[in-house]
Automatic annotation (TrEMBL):
Protein name as it appears in the record: Ribokinase
Entry similarity comment: Belongs to the carbohydrate kinase PfkB family. Ribokinase subfamily. Belongs to the carbohydrate kinase pfkB family.
Cofactor: Mg(2+)
Alphabetical keyword list: ATP-binding, Carbohydrate metabolism, Cytoplasm, Kinase, Magnesium, Metal-binding, Nucleotide-binding, Potassium, Transferase
A Pfam family this chain is assigned to: PfkB
Keyword Isomerase set for record: no
Domain of life: Bacteria
Length: 316
C-alpha cells in the first residue's frame, strides 16, 4: 500500500484549561505541552503506523520546529525527501483543550504559505506510484488544486480532507474521488447560507453530486453517512468509554480511511475502520500518541452502545 500526502506540518502548542476564556478574560490553572502537528503530517504518520509506505510533501522553516519534524518523520518511516525548507518560520498552532476534550485552535501558517504548485513537479513520481493521494486544506488553494490535478493525470485515487473548510472552486470538485467533511464543513464547501442547511442525508447527497465520486459525512457520535452513487448508507459510530482529547481524531480517521482504500476495502468497511481509528484517538491525549497501530485499531469495540463520541473530523 502506497500513500502520498500533500498537506501541512506545524508545531502544536497546547494548553489544557479549566475552561476557555471569554474575550478579554484571563484563565489560570492551565497545563502546557508542545508537540508536532499539522493535518498533512499527522495523516502521513497515521498511515505509516498502519503499515502503508508514505511520502509527504509539505513546507517547514529552517528552525528548531522544522528540524524536529524531519527527525519525527525519519522515526515514523515517512519519506520526507521532497519536503520544502522555506524562508519563513514553521507553522505554529495554538490549541486550547477543555476538560470535556473539546478544543479551539488558532494557526500561523508561516512556511506553508511558501508552498507553491512548482513544488509538485518533483513530487509527481510519488503521486504516480501511490494507491491514494491524501490532500488537506491548511496549504494554499492553488497547491490543493495542483496536487489533485497531478493525481488525476496519473490515475491515482484522490482523497480530499477539506479542513479547514472553505468554498471549493468549481474546477476542484471533479478531481476528488473521496471527500470527507464533517457536518460543519460540508455547508461551507457547498457555499450554503447558515439558514439554508439541509439534512445530513441531503448534504452527503449534494457532495456526491458535486464530485461524481464518493462523499463521506462524519458526524461524531452519530457515525458517518456514505454516498458512493448507490444511495446513502449509515456507518455506525464506535463506542468510547471517555473522551480525553478530540484534537487528532479527524487525522486518525483520514489516515485509516486512506489505508483501507489503498488496500482495496469496500467504502463502508473502510469508513468503519476509519471510525475505529477516530474512536481510539479521542481516548488519548495529544495528536501523535493518539494515532493508532493496527493492534490498537483491532481492539476498538465494534458496536456503539452509548452513542458517545466515536470520532471528530473537525481538528487540525
Amino acid at each position: 500500500m502506497r500513500i502520498a500526502v500533500v498537506g501541512s506540518y506545524g508545531a502544536g502548542l497546547t494548553m489544557r484549561v479549566p475552561r476557555s476564556p471569554a474575550p478579554g478574560e484571563t484563565v489560570s490553572g492551565g497545563e502546557f505541552d508542545e508537540g508536532p502537528g499539522g493535518k498533512g503530517s499527522n495523516q502521513a504518520i497515521g498511515a505509516a503506523r498502519l503499515g502503508a509506505r508514505v511520502s509527504l510533501l509539505t513546507a517547514v522553516g529552517d528552525d528548531t520546529y522544522g528540524r524536529a519534524a524531519r527527525d519525527l518523520w525519519a522515526h515514523e518511516g515517512v519519506d520526507s525527501s521532497h519536503v520544502v525548507t522555506a524562508d519563513a518560520p514553521t507553522m505554529v498552532g495554538f490549541i486550547l483543550v477543555e476538560p470535556s476534550g473539546e478544543n479551539r485552535i488558532a494557526i500561523a501558517p508561516g512556511a506553508l504559505d511558501r508552498l507553491t504548485p512548482d513544488h509538485l513537479a518533483p513530487f509527481r513520481p510519488a503521486i504516480a506510484e501511490a494507491d491514494v493521494l491524501v490532500v488537506s486544506m491548511e496549504i494554499p488553494a492553488d497547491v490543493v488544486l495542483g496536487a489533485l490535478r497531478v493525481a488525476r493525470e496519473c490515475g491515482t485515487t484522490t482523497l480530499l480532507n477539506p479542513a479547514p473548510a472553505r468554498p471549493l472552486a468549481d474546477e476542484v470538485w471533479p478531481l476528488v474521488d473521496v471527500i470527507t467533511p464533517n457536518q460543519t464543513e460540508a455547508p461551507v464547501l457547498l457555499g450554503l447560507d447558515e439558514d439554508a442547511v439541509p439534512t445530513d442525508r441531503e448534504l452527503v447527497a449534494r457532495l456526491r453530486e458535486r464530485t461524481g465520486g464518493t462523499a463521506v459525512l462524519t458526524r461524531g457520535g452519530l457515525g458517518a453517512l456514505v454516498d458512493d452513487g448507490s444511495g446513502v448508507r449509515e456507518v455506525p459510530a464506535r463506542p468510547v468509554s471517555r473522551v480525553v482529547d478530540t484534537t487528532g481524531a479527524g487525522d486518525a480517521f483520514t489516515a485509516a480511511l486512506a489505508v483501507a482504500l489503498a488496500a482495496g476495502e469496500d467504502i463502508a468497511d473502510a469508513v468503519s475502520r476509519a471510525a475505529a481509528a477516530g474512536a481510539h484517538a479521542v481516548t488519548v491525549a495529544g495528536v501523535i500518541p493518539a494515532l493508532p497501530t493496527p493492534e490498537q485499531l483491532t481492539a476498538v469495540p465494534t458496536h456503539d452502545t452509548d452513542r458517545t463520541h466515536a470520532e471528530r473530523n473537525d481538528t487540525a
